[in-house]
C-alpha cells in the first residue's frame, strides 16, 4: 500500500508540474522564452536539474516532430483530388496534430515523474568492459543472475491475449562499446504469424546485474488483399544501441534488488525510455510453468513514451520473469520454461 501511495504522489507531483508549464510558471517556460533553438546548458539556477532539462528538451523535440508530421500530412492532402476527401484529410491532420501536442505534454509529465524517481543527476552510466563477465562463462564458472539466467538454450514461452511470446537465449554474442553481450531472441506471434522479431543484447556485470545494451526490433504486419498474404516488415521502431545516437545502456534486472530501487532500463531519448521500480521482494504468483511464494521479485515497469501505461512484473528465483500484469488486469503468463 505504501508503494501505491508513493506512486500516486509522484503522479500528482508530475501533473502539477505539467499544469505549471501550461500556466507559464515552470523553469522550462523560462528556457522556452529564450528561443526554441537556443541551448540552455548551465543557466543560473538550473545547473543541477539535468533530468528535468532533458525532459524539457524532449518536449521541444516532440512538438517539432508533431509540427513536421502535420505539414507532411497537409502535403499529402493537397494531392487528394476529391474535395470532400481533401477536407476530411485536412480535418484528420488537424486532429492528429492536437492529439500529438497533448501527448507531448503528457510525456513531459511522465518524464518528470521519472526524474522524481531516479533523481536529477546526469544519466551517464559507467559502461566499462572490465566490469563485465564473459557471457560464455555464465552457467559454468560464473553464476547466472537469479532472475534472468543468460545461459544459451534457456527458453521462456509466454501467452497473453492472442499473442505467444518466445524468448530464447542464443549462442550468439555481439560486441557493443567493448562489452561482449549475449543475443537473446524475442519472437511475438499471433495465430502462428510473426508480428515482432527482436534481438536483444544483454550483458552481466561482475556483481550479477544484467545490463540492457540495445535491440533490433523488426515489426511485421499482414495486409488484407495482398497476394500472397504474408507478414511484411513495416518498421524497426523501438530499436536502439548503446553508443549510437546518444543511446545509453541501463539495468534490465538487478542481482540483489531491494524495495525502493529504481533504475533506467534503457535510454534512447524519444525512442526507448523504459524504467523499473522494485516494489516487493516477497511477492507471490503462480502461472502454468512456474510459481513463487513469498519470494517473488515484483517490479513496476513503465515508459515515459506511453504515459499512464504501467505493468507489474513477477520474477521467480532460478526461472526469471513468470508473469506480467497491466493496469487493467490483463496477464501475460509463462506457460513453458526450458533449461539447457
Essential attributes:
single chain, 340 residues, alpha+beta, YmcC-like fold, 15 strands, globular, disordered N terminus
Q: Biggest β-sheet, characterized?
A: 15 strands, antiparallel
Provide the CATH topology of the largest domain. Answer: YmcC-like fold
In total, how many domains does the architecture comprise? Answer: 2
Distance between the termini: 39 Å
C-alpha geometry = globular
Sheet-strand content, in percent, reads 35-45%
Order of secondary-structure elements: HHHHEEEEEEEEEEEEEEE
Q: pLDDT under 50 segments (min length 5)? A: 1-16, 18-35
Question: What does it look like?
Answer:
The chain contains 4 helices and 15 strands. With 340 residues, the protein is of the alpha+beta class. The protein folds into 2 domains: 2-118; 129-338, YmcC-like fold (Beta Barrel). The chain has a 15-stranded antiparallel sheet that branches. Helix 1 (2-23) crosses helix 4 and helix 3 runs antiparallel to helix 4 (83-118). The longest helix is centred in the first third of the chain and has 36 residues, at 83-118. It is globular.
Amino acid at each position: 500500500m505504501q508503494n501505491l501511495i508513493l506512486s500516486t504522489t509522484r503522479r500528482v507531483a508530475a501533473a502539477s508540474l505539467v499544469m505549471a508549464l501550461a500556466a507559464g510558471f515552470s523553469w522550462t517556460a523560462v528556457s522556452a522564452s529564450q528561443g526554441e533553438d537556443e541551448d540552455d546548458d548551465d543557466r543560473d539556477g538550473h545547473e543541477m536539474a539535468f533530468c528535468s532539462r532533458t525532459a524539457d528538451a524532449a518536449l521541444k523535440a516532440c512538438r517539432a516532430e508533431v509540427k513536421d508530421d502535420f505539414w507532411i500530412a497537409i502535403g499529402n492532402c493537397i494531392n487528394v483530388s476529391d474535395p470532400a476527401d481533401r477536407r476530411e484529410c485536412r480535418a484528420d491532420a488537424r486532429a492528429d496534430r492536437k492529439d500529438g501536442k497533448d501527448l507531448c505534454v503528457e510525456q513531459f509529465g511522465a518524464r518528470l515523474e521519472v526524474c522524481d524517481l531516479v533523481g536529477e543527476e546526469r544519466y551517464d552510466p559507467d559502461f566499462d568492459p572490465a566490469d563485465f563477465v564473459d557471457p560464455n562463462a555464465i552457467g559454468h564458472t560464473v553464476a547466472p543472475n537469479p532472475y534472468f539466467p543468460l545461459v544459451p538454450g534457456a527458453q521462456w514461452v509466454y501467452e497473453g491475449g492472442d499473442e505467444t511470446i518466445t524468448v530464447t537465449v542464443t549462442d550468439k554474442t555481439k560486441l557493443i562499446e567493448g562489452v561482449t553481450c549475449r543475443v537473446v531472441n524475442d519472437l511475438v506471434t499471433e495465430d502462428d504469424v510473426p508480428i515482432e522479431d527482436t534481438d536483444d543484447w544483454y550483458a552481466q556485470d561482475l556483481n550479477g546485474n544484467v545490463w540492457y545494451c540495445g535491440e533490433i526490433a523488426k515489426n511485421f504486419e499482414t495486409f488484407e488483399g495482398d497476394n500472397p498474404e504474408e507478414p511484411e516488415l513495416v518498421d524497426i521502431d523501438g530499436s536502439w544501441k548503446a553508443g549510437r545516437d546518444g543511446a545509453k545502456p541501463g539495468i534490465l534486472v538487478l542481482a540483489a534488488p531491494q524495495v525502493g530501487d529504481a533504475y533506467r532500463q534503457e535510454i534512447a531519448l524519444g525512442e526507448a525510455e523504459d524504467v523499473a521500480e522494485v516494489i516487493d521482494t516477497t511477492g507471490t504468483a503462480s502461472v502454468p510453468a512456474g510459481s513463487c511464494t513469498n519470494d517473488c521479485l515484483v517490479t513496476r515497469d513503465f515508459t515515459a513514451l506511453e504515459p499512464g501505461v504501467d505493468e507489474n512484473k513477477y520474477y521467480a528465483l532460478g526461472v526469471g520473469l513468470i508473469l506480467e500484469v497491466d493496469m487493467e488486469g490483463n496477464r501475460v503468463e509463462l506457460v513453458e520454461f526450458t533449461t539447457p
